[in-house]
Amino acid sequence: MIKSNSGIRKTDVINRRMFIIGAAKIVVFVGIIARLFSLQINENKKYLTLSDKNRIREWKLPPTRGNIVDYFGNVIAGNLKVYQLHIIPEQVESFNYLLVRLKNLLNLSEKKIAKIKKLKSELKPWDSIIVSENLSWSQFVKINNYLYDLVGVKPVMTISRNYPFNDVYTHVLGYVSQPNEQEILDNQTIQERFVPGMKIGKLGLEKRLENHLIGTNAIQRYEVNAYGKRINQLEHQKGEQGSKIRLTVDTEIQKACGELLNEKAGSISVMDIYTGDIIAMYSSPSYNPNLFLFGISQDEWQLIRNNPLKPLINKTLSGLYSPGSTIKPIVALSALENKVIDTKFKVKCTGKMELYGQTFHCWKEKGHGWVSLKNAMKQSCDTYFYEVARLLGVDRLNITAEKFGLGKKVLGDYFDNEKKGLFPSTKWKKNNLGKGWVLGETLITGIGQGYTQTTPLQLCMMTAQIANGGFAVKPKIIVDSNPVSYEDAKQSMESGLLFDTDSEELLDKKLFQNQKNIKIVQEAMFASTNERFGTSYKSRIDDPKYQFAGKTGTAQVKRISKRERELDLELEQIPYKDRDHALYVAYGPYVNPRYALSIIVEHGGSGSKAAAPIAKKLFKLIIDRHDLRNKQSNFERITV
Amino acid sequence: MFQHDRLSNEITLFQKIKNLDYILLISVILLSVLSVFVMYSTDGGEILFHTKNHFVKLAVFFPLMIFVAFFNIKFWHNFSYIIYFIVILLLIYVSFFGIKSSGSQRWMDLYLFVLQPSELMKVAIIMCLAKYFHRLKIENVNSFTNITIVLSIIIIPIIFVISQPDLGTSILIALSGLIILWLGGIKIKYFIYSFITFLISLPFIISFLKPYQKLRILTFLDPDRDPLGAGYQIIQSKIAIGSGGLDGKGFLKGTQSYLDFLPEKHTDFIFTLFSEEFGFIGSVGLLVLYSIIIFRIVRIGAISRSNFARLFCFGYAFAIFIYIFVNLSMVLGLLPIVGSPLPIMSYGGSSMLATMIGFGIVLSAKINHKQMIA
User: Fold this and answer.
1) Residue A104: inside a domain, yes or no?
2) What is the ipTM of this complex?
3) Domain C-terminal end among A214, A246, A278
4) pLDDT tens-digit readout, B90-111
5) Residue B353 lies in a domain
6) Contact by Cβ (8 Å): B313, B134
7) Which residue of B has its CA nearest to A52?
């Protein structure tokens, strides 16, 4: 009995305890179901998103850059189909054999082979290695012929930036190249659209207008596995080409500028005196931006870098020169405006002027005798302008010069490399050099030497503003959204007020007190070019259609010693570095003027010999293209 | 007649077949069929290595289950200790001559397939303890000697398994053993005391864990601390299950598994794939199927005359429950990742062999439920 009792009790214990466990099991299963419910029903959306994020990956393709065209619609920065060679390592049977074959076919260097091998070890086997970014057509054909033997090689056709005019626009457009890390970080748009192999603007307008030109990525959506390998293509989304940008420049004139400055260091700028359109802006020597597209070779780079004429410097915007005598129209205007002189005012030039024991020389040793404003300007008499500057004072001169755009950036923030230049004043000297102004400095400022530093484009704008009757222009290089025809620009300018589309304000365009004074200066400039004994008389064009007015300038690079003055060396006898810069500013046609230009030939010697003859050749072309330009309809525009 | 029935050891083959538990049998068949389909999905919708092998194993082990069932429960009772010792010997063999794979040594090569003795121990320990408690008088259950003996029965295999190292299986063996202790009548306070002792010594135990085991626990507590490393499995598993939604992505359409985001999808994470493709409805259905199996096993235990059969069935039902609980909690991110397969569903011969033998003994208990064991 006891035994069976014990047995029954044991069974009871087992059953009772089983019951407790059974209850516990139910609770646990309910708990698991609750968890399933929370994951699969409540949080389903979140996990679906995560699952899609896992499996769908987007591949951005490099965007196609927008074209840049000149005023007439010629593409000056476009895109070209290029042939590339890719290797997909995963499909290659024998990598070494393939490299040997390619090496023979394409003449690859050992360095390149080593680079490919390195890339192969870094990349995933299904990522393609770019062997050659830019195959020539014959290479491309060769590869295609041997394709049966080159397993894993993929000839690819893609699009790359191209500058059809090679070096003509380098300093305006800049060029594109692979971005560095900092450039990607600095620009939000580039950061968003960056794809390996993509190129961005490194310089000039290509850089400044990056966000307009860049375009949007084409996107390919793929389903990928856990290792990132593409399984299926799900979608292809086309990208949009970047905006087309139309510049105010004229390629024919720009090209002519290049030819005229061939093998010289210098710059030419041409501007519409009413609309401020920059017709040409050439810095010489230039270099071919196409060299940078696929990585410039060390040799080519050294060649550009070490060129003594400094092709890398955009002389139009960052070259700072003493204006020399080209400043004289402004000195004369300032003196007239301040009623310091009138047209009858005369100075006797003896070839030099003494001031507090210091001698200031006129370029003409024998002197010009008694000269009035017109003659002084015509023959560029330094003594006359010493005297005028002395009477005027540097501060009054400074006000006029700054009004006409000296000491300020011409194109604002379009080019990072544009320099402000400098037009001195007593205050400037005190603040910056901590010294008082000396009268002698006023004298040399009056002939454009000394502290004054100007860019060629500033001189061009200054001339334009004299040419248009003394009204402020707003220089521009991009055809803006509301282009003003030159007649409208002229009219509104002459009414003295102009509606500025950017700031939406009516601006006072008048830069003068008395327009008669402008006229006097214009006449003096005319005389300088078109009258006998004028410094640029030899470069004149008599045909009124092309007739222009201008002012030469010769900027000293170093102080002329007494000995040198006595020697009066020929240009060829002076070391290149010590030769004067030749300058010339001009506008034309003289009747109903339309264009202003500035020319600088570095170390070219005198303005009348080296710079003015260039203007003669150029004006013919500029005026000849005038009608064409007028007829050109405004087709596409963008706002920048 | 009644008397005769009760005392007779002789049951005809026909009666044996008639006495099989068909609900349990059908549930196991359903589960097996389902597991083949899921395995087919893990192979990416093709009959490849895993599907073939899984099918072959089912084809061998299912008849084995019936074969086991046709032995009298008394036979299994008699051989319980021997089976336990054989498995201990296998564990010893493995610890010296076993095959090493991914840092642990738990397998032995039997030419036809690779056996993992620790899986067999999951069943053997239940048999051994069931027999022990079957013979023990209820008055003596809580004696010091007995407690020492039963604890030794549990601890000896665990020492071998944990040194392989295989934390997951050790825990499952320990829990399977402990449940028999509980059912056998060990005082509740002992369980409570041990539990408190365990909690107190937990930091100490943790200091003995291998670095990768510690990492798993840390990862469990915060899977996002290393999403591409240790936390990857839990995160991807939760994504797969969560993205399944109410009715799943559809058979063969689970992107997480198809695109290889799921780790160990054939074995421990098989439920993840199932849940992704069949959703909440499918998952609950699977749980219901398992519940039916557990319930049937408990019921067979309840009608068994012998305490051995009763203890075995209850213990085995609990073991199955624990396997499911540990596996699902792991893939659902409720417990740290410890290797533990889902019965029948997971790929793995030893686990399936042990499970099928267990079912076989349960069926034997059903066939012979009136059998008394002295």
Assistant:
1) yes
2) 0.91
3) A246
4) 999 999 998 888 778 889 988 8
5) yes
6) no
7) B255
